[in-house]
TrEMBL record:
Membrane topology: Single-pass membrane protein
GO cellular component: membrane
Residue ranges of domain SRCR in the record: 1-93, 110-154
PANTHER family: SRCR DOMAIN-CONTAINING PROTEIN
PROSITE patterns (alphabetical): SRCR_1, SRCR_2
Keywords recorded for this protein, A-Z: Disulfide bond, Glycoprotein, Membrane, Repeat, Signal, Transmembrane, Transmembrane helix
Protein name: NETR protein
Gene: Prss12_1
Cysteines paired by S-S bonds: 18-82, 31-92, 62-72
């Protein structure tokens, strides 16, 4: 939900963006435009798979302060010299940072796995791009209460 191939809608059709000049400042604008507050990272070479249809933008060069891609310096719509192997991607990873940020971020950072019902299971956390387990050393009912509350249970 916070990363993928970047596609734009223009003149009645969806298309991709070529990764020429694509960098983290462009990713920052995409994340802002989507209302995501994670750490912006630009990905190139169709990292999230090749799109289909037109390649609508090329040579995108944002300063990072724009509110939308349309405000960035770029080629004219539809003017490009790319193939879909160069489709641009973005990650707006809300789970990067320190352990303190991890504990304070969305409920999406914690999940229960392997249980017989949605309200039970092994506690797993998302950190640095991967899901991992929580060691039970020092684990108490208080920790369980925090996880339950974070997942929306009473």
């Amino acid at each position: 939900s916070f990363e993928g191939r970047v596609e734009v809608y223009h003149d009645g059709k969806w298309g991709t963006i070529c990764d020429d000049q694509w960098d983290d400042r462009d990713a920052e604008v995409v994340c802002r435009q989507l209302g995501l507050s994670g750490t912006p990272k630009a990905l190139s070479w169709a990292h999230y798979g090749q799109g289909s249809g037109p390649i609508l933008l090329d040579e995108v060069q944002c300063s990072g302060n724009e509110l939308s891609i349309d405000q960035c310096k770029k080629s004219d719509w539809g003017q490009q010299n790319c193939d879909h192997i160069e489709d641009a991607g973005v990650s707006c990873d809300p789970f990067t940072g320190t352990d303190v940020q991890l504990c304070q971020s969305d409920a999406g950072t914690v999940r229960l796995a392997g249980g017989r019902s949605p309200g039970e299971g092994r506690v797993e956390v998302y950190y640095n791009g991967d899901w991992g387990t929580v060691c039970d050393d020092g684990w108490t009912d208080l920790g369980a209460q925090v996880v339950c509350r974070q997942l929306g249970f009473r």
